[in-house]
Amino acid sequence: MDIEKIWQESEGKDNNLDKLLRAGKITRISSRHPIKKLQDNLLYGLILALMITAGYGFLFVEFSPWQIRVALVVVTVYNLIIMADSWRLYLLTRKTESINEPLRDKLQTVYDQYMRWWHIQLRTSLFVLPFAITGGFILGGIDGSGKTVEEFISHPVALIALGICLLVFIPASYFLSKWLFRVFYGKYLKQIKGSIDELS
Amino acid sequence: MSEKEFLLQLKEHQNIIYKLVHIYATSEEDKKDLYQEILFQAWKTYSSFRGDAKFSTWLYRLSLNTIFTFKRKTNRIEYTDTAQYEEQLTTTSAVNDEKERLYKAIRTLPEGERAIISLHLDGYDNSEVGELLGITANSVGVKLHRAKKQLTTLLKDI
After folding, report:
1. Cα separation of A158 and A116, whole Å?
2. What is the Cα–Cα distance from B136 to B89, expressed in whole angstroms?
3. Contact at CB, A191 and B69, closer than 8 angstroms
4. Which residues contact A97 (CB under 8 A, 6 or more apart)?
5. Which of B43, B47, B144, B147 has its CB 3.0 to 4.6 Å from that of B113, i.e. a possible disulfide?
6. Short-list B92, B62, B64, B88, CA closest to B77
């Protein structure tokens, strides 16, 4: 069996391929490529973050107590930094659409950058979450009770409730964000990692 | 370049897509998915085709890149010994032609080696293959030798 000869002479015919090569078809094809999925999910995440940040802006205008405003400023600045980093990552992912660099290097870059982006967010969120939870707690408290911040937090029950909220919601938010990352990015990164390992 | 011109170029070289998809996918559904994904990527990234390489090389690289990152499961049949494989090939040879048997034999190779052997069979030298896959020419040589040896053993009596 002459392998070279058979390979070179083998003319491929597949109806599925022929159908896709008809005029008007190629422009309507959608993609399930892992890098494209990462890119899409990152963009949706960015849009959502933008809307949430706009919501913080609205709350900033609506609520004047400085305690709430400090919390809003902290979470807004955090969001803006993360959004800037996400945009950088989005542009980097778009750049890797070029097929001129070796595949393994390209996949490794995407994998490393997403993991870095994720780890930075996960770690820094631990510093921001207490501000977000406390701000939200005070905001809800004064809005619901009609009291001032000082009156509201002078109540021992409010302080105990705040402590419980912090104890429950910090780890809950941490694990929720981990789970969300796995759902929206993890499976695609796992797929990419598998390809990197096979190419190594 | 218009869609029409692009399609003409693709049709001229569709054999590259056909062969690569057939050595990486077995089920009709997987093949269809890979065709779609390759054509999507080709259409989207055609602007990055600089014209300093041949269209066929560009399409080869794009198809392999897409296949390596898109495939969801390994379509590799693990045989514990070559006798087992030969027995299986002989059984199917009655209904399949030589081409199909060659594709089937190539599908028993590890994924990286499948790319190397297909590029080699299409006339690319080791340094070109290495450049395309991001590995050294020496590494290509070693893998190619191993792949050819395995293919020869599997197909010699058929």
Report:
1. 38
2. 33
3. yes
4. A35, B44, B45, B48
5. B147
6. B88
Task: Answer yes or no: are the C-beta atoms of A143 and A106 closer than 8 Å.
Answer: no
Q: Which pLDDT score is estimated for B78?
A: 46
Nearest to B36 among A3, A20, A103 (CB): A20
Chains A & B: contacts with CB separation below 8 Å: 140
Q: What is the pLDDT of residues A163-183, one digit of tens each?
A: 999 999 999 999 999 999 999
Dump pLDDT digits (tens) for A109-147. Answer: 999 999 999 999 999 999 999 999 999 999 999 989 888
Residue type, A101: E
Residues A33, A36, A42, A48, CA torsion sign: negative
Nearest to A191 by CA among A37, A31, A30: A37
ipTM, two decimals: 0.73
Closest alpha carbon to A130 in A119, A138, A141, A118:
A138
Any residues with CB less than 8 A from the CB of B124 and at least 6 apart, and which? Answer: B57, B132
A interface toward B at CB cutoff 8 Å?
Answer: 1, 3-4, 6-8, 10-14, 16-17, 20-24, 26-27, 29-35, 97-107, 191-192, 195, 198-199
Test the A interface: residue of B13, B22, B65 with most A CBs within 10 Å = B65
User: B136-144 contacts: CB < 8 A, separation 24 or more?
Assistant: B140/B116, B143/B112, B143/B113, B143/B116, B144/B113, B144/B116, B144/B117, B144/B120
